[in-house]
Amino acid sequence: MTRWRVNADDEGHRLDAWLARRPEVGSRGRARTWLERGKVFLNGAAVGFPDAGRRLQAGDEVGLWVDRPGTASAARREVRDLRDQLRIVREDAALLVADKPAGLLVEPLPGEAGAEPTLLDLVADHLRNAVQVRPLVVHRIDRDTSGLVLFAKTRAAQEALKDQFERRTPSRVYVAVVQGLVTPQAGTWRDRLVWDKVQLRQRRAHPQDAHAKEAIARYRVVEQFADATVLEVSLVTGKRNQIRVQAGLRGYPIVGERLYRFGVARGTGPTLDRQALHAARLAFTHPVSGKQVRVTAPVPGDLRELLARLKGERRRG
Q1: pLDDT of residue 76
Q2: How many other C-beta atoms can be found within 10 angstroms of the C-beta atom of residue 208?
Q3: Residue 115's pLDDT band (boundaries 50, 70, 90)?
Q4: Angle in degrees, CA 175, 52, 147, rounded to 5
Q5: How high is the pLDDT of residue 312?
Q6: Which of 36, 198, 214, 230 falls 20 to 30 Å from 160 in CA-CA distance?
Q7: Which is more confidently placed, 178 or 24?
Q8: What is the reported pLDDT for 85?
Q9: pTM (2 decimals)?
Q10: Could you tell me which of 85, 90, 89, 114 has the C-alpha nearest to residue 102?
């Protein structure tokens, strides 16, 4: 096993980002793969993918056991399980829409093709018998967000669909369960965000930051509980981690959120193993027929269980 000691200069860094800078690891994608496969240890205890965002402390010992027995066979089982989970919502000669499970990247991280199975891999496997057809990514959602992802089957279809997203014409509606009681009942979130390449996260930009990007989302309250709110959020822009960071900035971190909490302590309120965010509805213009396409993805089991638990607590109260 390779072991490292975290120094004071690296205190507060994410575990996956810190690992990615070790020469023996080399990338964030490989760090996350080894976390998922049980090869990483923190202070002598095995840690997994849910711990990727854990903030390190000076003096922590991080270990990497690449040849840990059993992890290779576990990875093979994981690939088979993921292939079984692929759900195609709509497919025709020009495009395909899949309902992505949480925990799966849409496509490999830069330079990390083959490091771990992705939704793109599963869709490509689904299309393996089609002549000269390979899936092309149109848009992405976060690894731990579930729901609808759009792929094109031709370069012309991809360009037409990407143009729609750049012009902000598609409708993208998410279901989010957040901590706290959101007020008012409906509104618009507007922020200027910038991607921090060191911390690998979005942050609110300084007014004069030339790299800042506009982030806009509209929300409405669907249901409220004692200490949580179900929101329907419609994206106007589509920035990385947008809903997660905008909810967190307003003091309503998404249930299960590890990164964008902005002072709201973990361990308070309802919990979930991943952020409670689901891409539920998508509407766009078909790149060939010109007709409107509308697709939906039902809320997955873990979110249904969370909502049932919140409703049960309300009845007991």
Answers
A1: 46
A2: 6
A3: low
A4: 25
A5: 85
A6: 214
A7: 178
A8: 78
A9: 0.76
A10: 85
CATH superfamily name and code, 76-316 = Pseudouridine synthase (3.30.2350.10)
CA angle at residue 192 from 18 to 20, to 5 degrees?
10
Considering 142, 191, 209, 227, which one is annotated as catalytic? 142
Whether the CB-CB separation of 98 and 123 falls below 8 Å is answered with yes
Backbone phi and psi for residue 216, each to the nearest 5 degrees, phi listed first: -130, 135
Judged by DSSP in three states, 249 sits in: helix
| 224 beta partners | 229
Q: Are 28 and 20 in contact (CB under 8 A)?
A: yes
The arithmetic mean of pLDDT across residues 161-188, rounded, is 97
Residues 229 and 269: beta-carbon distance below 8 Å: no
Which one, of 288, 300, 295, 298, lies nearest residue 97 by Cα? 295
Answer for the pair 35, 91: CB distance below 8 angstroms, yes or no.
Answer: no
In terms of DSSP H, where are the helices of 14-70? Answer: 15-20, 28-36
* Structure tokens given for 157: 């279809």
Q: Which two tokens stand for residue 229?
A: 């709110």
- For residues 10 and 1, the model is more confident at 10
Cα within 13 Å of Cα(180), Cβ side: 16
pLDDT (mean) for 133-152: 95
> What is the rounded end-to-end Cα distance, in angstroms, of the chain?
50
pLDDT band at 48 (very low <50, low <70, confident <90, very high): confident
Q: What angle do CA 107, 111, 117 make, to 5 degrees?
A: 40
Inter-residue contact 18 to 53 (CB < 8 Å):
no
Euclidean distance between CA atoms 209 and 44, whole angstroms: 42
What are the domain boundaries of the chain?
Answer: 2-69, 76-316
Alpha-carbon distances, residue 25 vs 38, 45, 97, 197, 214 (angstroms): 15, 19, 34, 18, 34
CATH number of 2-69: 3.10.290.10
Query: Quick check: is 92 catalytic?
Result: no
